[in-house]
Each structure stands twice: as C-alpha cells, then as structure tokens.
Design a protein that fits this description.
It is a single chain. This protein has 72 residues and is an all-alpha fold. The chain folds into two domains: 37 residues, no CATH class; 33 residues. Helix content is 64%, strand content 0%. It has three helices and no strands. The longest helix is centred in the last third of the chain and has 25 residues. The mean pLDDT is 86.
C-alpha cells in the first residue's frame, strides 16, 4: 500500500496514514476507534444511537473496500 497515495485520497498526512496502519496491525479494527471522551456501555445506549454507530462502522468498512479496489 502506498501511504502517499492514501494520504492524498483521504486528504490527510502521510504520518496519519502510517499511524492508522500501525494501529490496525497492532490491534485490528479496535485500534482505529476514537479514544477521546468517555463512551457509555452499549447496554446504556439507546437503540437509535447504537444503530447510528453501526451505520458509521459499515460506512467506514465500505470506504476501506473501495480504497482497496482503487489501489489494486
């Protein structure tokens, strides 16, 4: 994977892409989550909020697949 191309595609820096890949290799998808702030346990979150989170995750996964297809 070319970090420069990926950085341009996502309008970010080479360093950000490098760090994303490093975190993904170390901890998988869980390593890419936003760690800022305090999140409630899923049990305490209402269904709409939970569904919104799941939708964002699926959108991210789709974006990654599309990126892989562009780069291959």
């Amino acid at each position: 994977m070319d970090y420069k191309i990926t950085a341009k595609l996502f309008e970010t820096t080479y360093a950000n892409v490098f760090n994303w890949v490093k975190k993904y290799k170390e901890k998988g998808e869980d390593g890419l989550g936003d760690k800022r702030g305090c999140r409630k346990d899923d049990e305490k979150v209402d269904e709409v909020t939970l569904l919104k989170r799941q939708l964002k995750q699926k959108e991210y996964e789709l974006e990654m697949v599309q990126l892989e297809l562009k780069l291959s």
